Amino acid sequence: MTSLLTPAAPLETDPLAEEVTAARLRLLFERNTPSLLIGMGFACGLGLFLWPQVPHLHLSMWLGAKLLIAGTRLLCVYSWRHKPGVRSTRQWMTLHTWLLTGDGLIWGVMLMALIQPSDNMLMAMGIACLFGLGALGAVVLSHDFASTFAFVGALLLPNAVLEFFRNEPLHLFFAFCLLTYLLVLLLDARRVSRDMTELLTLRYTAGRLAAARAEALLRAEHASEIKTSFLATMSHEMRTPLHAMLGVLEIARQQPRVSVGEEEVKLIENSGKHLLTIINDVLDLSRIESGALKLNQRPFDVENLVRETVALLQPTGNPRLRLRHFSELGETVWMLGDEDRVRQILINLLGNALKFTDHGHVTMQVDYESTGPNQGNLVVCVKDSGRGIPIEAQHKIFDPFVQLTQADGQSAPRDALRGNGLGLSITRTLVNSHGGSIGVHSEVGVGSEFRVDLPLP
Predict the structure, then answer these.
(1) Helix/strand/coil for 17
(2) CA-CA distance, 314 to 303, in Å (whole number)?
(3) Burial of residue 106, with CB atoms counted within 10 A of its CB: 0-12 exposed, 13-18 middle, 19 or more buried
(4) CA–CA separation, 71 vs 99, rounded Å?
(5) Bridge partners of 336?
C-alpha cells in the first residue's frame, strides 16, 4: 500500500512529471469541494435515519468523526487555494491521500460497526451505501489511482475482511461482492489514471514544444537581424582600410614622379593590419562555429609575451592616454599552453580597453596563483579609466556580433579602431578552450576591469 500511495522518485526531479502531478492535484482539489459537501449532507441524512435504530452515543461519535474529517479536507482545499507554496506538490498529495484514507475508514468501518450483523435489512442498506460511496469515490478520484485506492480501498477492503470472518453464508456473499466490486473499481481507476497521465503528459509536452518553437523562432529572427547588422558593419569596416590603401595607390599612379612619403606608407601599413585583423577574426569565428579550433600546446615565456604585447599596443598620437603593466611573475616564467592564443587574448583585452579610453590609463596586471605542484592559474587583469559599460549591457558583451558601446550608448569615435563585434566573443571562447574563466566589472564614469584566469602548468 505504501508503494501505491507514495509518488515515484522521478517526480522529484523530472520537471514534466512534476507538472503532470501538479495538474492531477489541482483536479483532485477542484473536484473535492462539491463531493465533500454532498457527502456531509448524506452523512447527516443517514444519521437521522439511523437515530432510532442504533445507540445514540455511537452514532454521534461516527457522525462527529465524519464531519471532522470532511472539515479537515475542506480546510486542506482552502489552504491549497490560498497558500499553495506552504507545501510542495508531493507534500500536498501525501496529505490529501492520508485524509482520503481516513475518510474511507470512517465511512466504511465505523458505519458498519454501528449495524448489528443480525439486522439483515440494515446490513443490506449499509452494503448498498458502501457500493454507492465506492462508485462516487471512483468517479471523483479516478484520474489519480493512488487517491482512488486510498479511499475505495479503505472503504471496502476492511469490511470485506470483516464479513469474511463472520463465516456465515450471507456475510460470505457480502464479502465476495465487496471484493469483486473493489477489484472492478481499481482496475477501471488504473486505466483512467493511466489515460489521464498520458493525456496530461501530451498536453504539457505539446505546450513545451510550442514554447520552445516560439523561442527558437525568436532566436533565429534575432540571430538573423544581428548577422545582417554584422555584415553591414563588416562591409563598412573592410571598405574603410581598402579605400585608404586604394586612395594612396591612386595618388601614386596619377603622380608617378612624386615619391610616396613615410606617412602614406604608414597609412597603407596600418590599413593592411586593420584589414588582416578583421579577416583573422572572421576566420577564427568560422573555426569556432565549426569546432575546428585547435590549441597548440608548447612551452612559452609568459613575461616575454606580456612585454611584447604591451609594446605592440602602446598608444601613439594621444599624449593623454598611457598603457602600463605590472607583473609579479619575475623575469622568466615558462608555462605550457598555446602562446598565439594567449597573445590573442591579451591583444583583444588591451585593444578593447584602449579603444574606449580617451584619456587616463590602461593597466594590465599579470600574476600567477599556484594551485599545486607545477599547477596554477595565470591571472590577467586589464583595467581602464574609460566611461564604463552600462549594467544592462554587461551580460551580452561576450556574445558574437555585439559591438561594445560607451556609457552614453554611442560607439567608439571615428578615429579609433571600432570593434566588429567578435573580439570579446572570440576571447571568451579561447579562455574557455584553455579551461579558464573570464569576467567583467564595470562602473559608468569610473572604468572597466576584465579578469581572466587561465589554468596553465
Answers:
(1) helix
(2) 17
(3) buried
(4) 11
(5) 299
Q: Which of 200, 145, 2, 14 is nearest to 89 (CA)?
A: 14
Look at residue 145 in the predicted model and tell me its pLDDT.
87
What pLDDT score was predicted for residue 317?
Answer: 55
- Contact residues for 2 (Cβ-Cβ < 8 A; gap 6+): none
Residues 359-387 have pLDDT tens digits of 888 888 888 887 777 677 888 899 888 88
Q: Is 304 exposed, middle or buried (0-12, 13-18, 19+ CB in 10 A)?
A: middle
User: Which residues 6+ apart lie within 8 Å of 394 measured at CB?
Assistant: 440, 442
d(CA 114, CA 107): 11
Cell of 22: 501538479
Beta-strand pair 321-327/360-372: parallel
Q: Which residue has the cell 584553455?
A: 434
- For the entire predicted model, the pTM comes to 0.48
In angstroms, the CA 110 to CA 66 distance is 9
What one-letter code names the amino acid at 264? Answer: E
- Coil vs helix vs strand at 1: coil
Q: What is the pLDDT of residues 382-412, one digit of tens each?
A: 988 888 888 877 777 777 666 554 444 444 4
Could you tell me which residues come within 8 angstroms of residue 388 by beta carbon, excluding any fewer than 6 positions away? 407, 442, 443, 444, 445, 446, 447, 448
Chain center to CA of 334? 41
